[in-house]
Structure formats: structure tokens, C-alpha cells
Amino acid sequence: MSSPTEKESAAPKDAAAAETALPASATQPNADAFEEIGSLLQEGFKELRGSMRRVGIRTAKETHFSTLEDFRRADPTLKRVVAIGCTGSGKSTLLNFMAGWRLVQKPPDYEFEWQPKLSADARPDGSINLEAEAETNAEEKEENADGEEEGEEEEEMAAGKPPLFESGDGSDSVTKRTSYANIDWFGDAAKPFIAVDTPGYDDPAGADIDSAEARDVLGQLAADLHNKLKALNYVNVILVLHNDVTSNRLNPATYTILKMVDEKFAKSGHSVWEHVVVGYSKCNSHETSWRSGLKNKCKAMQKAIRDTIPNCTVDVPVLALGGASIEPPPPSHMSKADAGGFDELWQFIEAAPPLDCAHLQPFEGADVKWQHLIAEKDEAEARAKASMIYMAVVMKLVGLICLLFVRAFCLPRSLAALIACGMLACVVYMVQGAEDRSKIPRTPLFASALAFLMINLYTVFDELALLFLFITYVGPNDLKNSLRHFNDVWVEPRFHLNQYIEKVEPVSKQLLSGVNAALAKAMPAAAAAAKQKTS
User: Fold this and answer.
1) 111-115 and 355-356 beta bridge pairing
2) % pLDDT > 70, the chain
3) Would you call the peptide bond into 108 cis, given omega within 30 degrees of 0 as the criterion?
């Protein structure tokens, strides 16, 4: 047994040990909390950097984008499909099918009419499940039995949205310029992609593939497409549409465009023919003439392309594509069996790697004249866009100037720092409490970044950062053209500044030339003096 003195001496030791152990256990949760906050901050800034990289990216669905600035800001996360073909080959119509619209023949005249976008019961070939649609319509009628007029108005609004890509039956090309849109594959939001629509090119009947006539006919197409593909940086699939499946003969213009594709992508670092698909358009499910000998026609088309284009060493996929339907469907109507062409096309799109467009071959020889046409068309298109958006851009610029003024003269740094810390705490709380962090809204992240930028550091770098973000958001070309248009419309007619600029310009040129001459004389003397000093 231990003596009382031993127990008394052991008690203080246990108490001291408990006191020393207590702070360690108490500080452990705090350390874990700070570590968690640090990881959340790191994740938040990582998300913020990713979001800032997407500033100005054209992500709007079913909206036409046609300027060079738009093509440079295409969504980098989506697959890109370029549709080319002769006038009347059905490029725009097929892209409308892919976006979810339906083209239907109805009695008594059996004229083609565009219908509302595909529903969940729609079939990939463009036809619809009539039984499911009838059930849906019956349910809607029961629900709206007391409000028929309201139901009719909603139906008109749903059917009132026209197809995204303008199409027509005439011999003239409806699409006048190369443009693109972000669309969902047959309305499926899980399959987004970028569809590039191009102007149709005419067939110079009987023209040889290498003749000047054939190349001149395609000059307009090349002028519109060349720079926009370079601005796009890469594509995944080039879809060449051909509408004469019966005779299965490609016209000279189509052969010429295939050869131009081969020439332009000669230095892309990858064979362009692994990205090309030939589509027989207008192969509608309710028609049967195109089905005759289809497999043999596809093989003959592949051989013809290989024989005509020496650099093509692969069998280019040839698919039957058509989305129009007829209501009511005929007894021999084949529905899902005809969706194979679109299924194969989507599989090809998903598997296709990026094809570099940044190193497209320049125009050479007689085709150099199209380079000037490219610049003129792009400049005119950019100015036309600026005439529509310049007021919005100017108002944003005024807002930036007001922000910089308030930041510099009205907002104390302590208050700005307090607001920034509060916004950051809000973001940390949202990130910590979210079950799925990928679904956290980006607005608080941007707000917290803006709050930190509101802290005036009394250096020029924070102002430059704000200016850089503004230019990135608006777009340098859009900003330049908008300010130029604003000057032409509002400033110059009232103040006539151009006459003063014209007077100052010669003087400034003389000053610059004098400075350059002085520098040219001073540089050799300075170099000689430095050489003598080192020796």
C-alpha cells in the first residue's frame, strides 16, 4: 500500500498532466476548423479562377453568333460541328432537326411545316410518338376544360418560336454568313454541342475540280469561313452534306470544297479526313427511294473521295440523315430503325478529338484576293454589331468609371476590407454547407472577388486589373468598335474633333520621326562609348 504522502504527491502530478493535456485536446478542433477553412478558401479561389476564365464566353443557348469576337469566345467545353454543302443540300434544315425542331407534312396539301421542338417522347429520326402525344393532349384538355382560351394562347406561344437556322426551298442560299449556335442534340440537355452553319455554294455545272471557275464560285464561301475557323481555334467534325443520294454523284463544287478542306488543314498536325463525315440529306423516314442500294452507294462514295483526294487514306463515314416526317404516318412507316444515321453521327462527334484550325493554310496565288474580302466582310460585320450594342457598352464603361471614382475617393479602405471579409465569409459558409459543391452559384464568388478589388491598394496595378477584367468581359473588338461608333454618332457631329486631329496628326508624325532619327544617331554613339568603357 502507498502512504498518504505518496498519494498527495501523485495528485499534483495528475492534475498537472491533466492541465497540460487539456489545451492540446482543446486546440485540436480549432486546428481542424482552420484547416477546413483553408481548404474551402483554396477551393473557392480555384472555382473563382475557373469562372473568371469563362468571362465573356458565349454560353447562351439557341442564339446566333456570327462575328470574329463571337467565334473567339466559343464555349471551349463543347464539341464543334461544321456543316458545309452546296445550296439546297439541307444544312440549315438538318441543324434545326438536331436542335429539336420537327418538319412535318400534313394533309390536305402536305406542305412541309415546322412544328414545336421535340418533347421527351420524340424519336431521334424526327418523327413523334403519336400515342404518347395523344395521351398528353387529352390530359391537357381535361386540365384546361374551363380555360380553353388560355390554353390556346399558351399553345400559340409554344409553337410561335421559329426554327433557329433559317432554311428554304429555293435555289439561292438562305444562309448568307457563317454563324454558330449552342444547341442540344435533339433537345437533350445532356448532349450540348456547337453547330456551325455556313453559306451554300453553287454548282458551276460541268466545271473541272481545278478550274478557275470552280474556285471562284467557292471564293465567297472561303472568304466567310476561313478567318472564323481560325478564330474558333479548333473543330471536332466537318459534316459535308450531299442531297443527291439517288444518282450518288458528287457535283464538281462539292469535290472542290473537299479539296479545299484538304489544302487548308494540310498543316493541322492531324489528318483532317479522320474528322470528316459525308451525310446524305433528305433521307426521311417516310420515304423509300433513297433506301435502294444504300450500302453499295456508301462504299462507292468512299472510293470516289479516296480516288479524288490523294491525302484521304481512310474510308470517310457516309450516313443517311433526314428528319422530316408525315402525319399521320403511312402503314410502312419505319420509326426508330431509321435513327441509326443520327446515332452514328453523335457517336462520331463524341469520339472526335479537336482538329487544329489555328494553322489554316493562307491563300496563295490568285486566291490572295479573297484575303482582302475576308477583312472587309469581318470589319463590316463587326461594325454592324457595334451599332446595335454600343449604348450598352458605353453605359458599362460609365459604370466602371463611377466604380473607380467611388473606390478612390468615397470608400474607406477599412470599410472595403470589412465588406470583402463579409462576402468571403458568406462564400465559405455556402461552400461548407453545400452537399454538391459543383452546384454552388457563381454570383457570390464574383461578388467576393469584386469586393476584394474594391480595396484601394494605392497602386496602379489594382486599377489595371479592373480594366483588364472589363475589357475581357466586353471584348476588345466590341469595345473598340462600340466606342468608334459612339464617336461617329454623338461626339463628332457636335464637336468636330476630327479636324483638330487631322491638324495634329502631321505634327505628331514629324515629332515621332525626329525622335526616331535622334535615337538612331544616339545608339551607335552610346554603343561605342560603352565599348570604350569596358575596354
Assistant:
1) unpaired
2) 68
3) yes
